[in-house]
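Mods, move this if it's the wrong board.
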Amino acid sequence: MAARHTIAAFLGIIAVCSIIIALASLLGIATGGLIALNRVWPGLFSLFRRRGQNERSLEEGLATEENQVNASGNAECQRQTKQTTEPTKLNWAAGYPAFAKGKKLSTKVQILATGSGLGPGMIRIAPLFPDTVMAVFDSDPIAVGETNSRIMKLRDQFAKTSKPVVGNPYQNISAFLMVHQAAAPNYFTKGQLSKVFVSIPSQESVLEKSPSAVDISQSYASVTQSGGVFYALFESEDALQRFAGEFDIAGHLWLRVPEEEWTKDCMMAAVGDRMKEGSMHESRIAVWKRK
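Not the wrong board. Structure tokens:
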């Protein structure tokens, strides 16, 4: 009887050992597979880590020179990126240290440029209004990073004091990632903006359906002060005419500014005919004034 118990116990031990060995083998195979996968794609695991770090950076609302490379990916991935920052959580103070008052700004943003490639043009405008805060919204993380990098270099070059001070050149401008450009007006309060630059993309260059000219007219009218100016930039004359025809439907909100008047505008004189970075042609521009 005792012998039977001994044999049963022995067989039980063997069974347990077999299970342990099998589990260890499976674990080894899985680990080996992950190691092999990482050898084939060395940056796989670091990519996931960087993506998490970049998402946290984007939640701050400011794409820096360091994280913009990690965020870039390819064009398709950029279009599919979800906008994570809510208007109330956008960290304005991080972009304008000279104007920062805690986590808020001592003065609100008054000039906005939203759309592709407007950063360089706005950098040329910034010194004209050193006490006026202006923001650049772009859907391309690389463009945002490059714009902020140029701004930081110019701030250092023209710094008059060791600390950022209001009035020092280029302290009043910063770029932010804005994946969905249609949401840009949501980041401002009623009558907050005095000047708005919007790059209107051609329908062929966007995957998502763009907001109509009427929608753009109404959404920006709510955040533009009376007498404020709306500059719309186009890639072709046909696109301008189509947009203007629809935009003018909201005639009770805006007044079209004749070309002979807006060409004398000091802001347009600063940027010249090529407001957009990388443009091979003169930008087609239409201008309206808020009633």
